[in-house]
Amino acid sequence: MSALPQATDLARIFLDDVPLIDLRAPIEFNEGAFPQAVNLPLMTDNERAQVGTCFKQQGQAAAIALGHQLVGSDVRAERMEGWLAHLRQQPDALLYCFRGGLRSQTVQLWLHEAGVTRPRVAGGYKDLRRFLIDTQASASAECHWTVLTGMTGSGKTHMLEQVAQAVDLEGHAHHRGSSFGQLPGGQPSNINFENKLAIELLKRRHLGESAFVVEDESRLIGRCALPLNLYEAMCQSPLVVVDVPQAERAEQIRIDYVQDLWQRYQEMYGTEEGWPLFASYLTDALARLKRRLGDKDHRELDALMQAALAEQGSSGNTELHLAWIRLLLTRYYDPMYLYQLDNKRERIRFRGDKAACLAYFAEQVACGPNVDSQTC
User: Fold this and answer.
1) Which CATH number applies to 6-127: 3.40.250.10, 3.10.450.50, 3.30.365.10, 3.30.70.3490?
2) Is 367 a residue of the active site?
3) Which of 97, 143, 224, 357 is catalytic?
């Protein structure tokens, strides 16, 4: 088995989006994998658990024997057909298990005996994951980061769509980064969130990029935690502050968190099933702020929200949502933001409206992040 080929250029695997066959059990795959990987396990979760117990109690030789027994001739033939069928569609796919050990070596040998020779990844999932962790850590330490901040509803995410240097952290987390940020379909595992982010940074640095713009985030984006070294870099990075009037911000929130999000729920669940899920999403998001708002303010805001939902449900009109949105901005989000920004005032590099901030980012591309754009 040791004479069969191994893939050792881990960077190239991600730079070229090389297809991967993950031979680990489903429970391992679901905890974390790679965007280009498909899970075609050698053993099921139950089979893996049995082999693990045998290994602890009787040692490696007995565990290997049990593994071969569990994946006997009929089971082996069925799983072989799955691997071969996938390789017919993705002939360049590489094999990996957790450490590049027995599981991937066994499948590699079986495939070789069937006339198909494919490399296994040296070091397996463990080395691939470590490579991405190191990739992200080096980008956090070596790249120039700028943080776009602004009051809630300023449309920062939409602005970043127009910024060449942008890295969409919320996009990777599939969450909008606030109590109201949950999106239908759920979030990736934290490992998958980190992996996709690291792969993007790897590819962009490979193309020569070294300066990035991110939206101001807390450590948690929903339940996805930013890597600590990246979060610490963001907390020390220069700020660009976008100033947007409250009326415009309230309208942006109505569009993003009511109108467009309701459309997403309809597309995913249908109107009949989607409506109660959408209404619960808004109600529950406000309820999560109850402790900070206080009972009186929460009851007032909830009453306005329920009236707006009733009107939306009967007529489709979402204008009534502006009442609770404006009140929530005035009483909670805007004061909190102003307090936080005051503590960061020494880091402010530029401040202006949307057009001015976008022009500033464009000048950074032309002049470089550390050059005065007026003299470049």
Assistant:
1) 3.40.250.10
2) no
3) 97
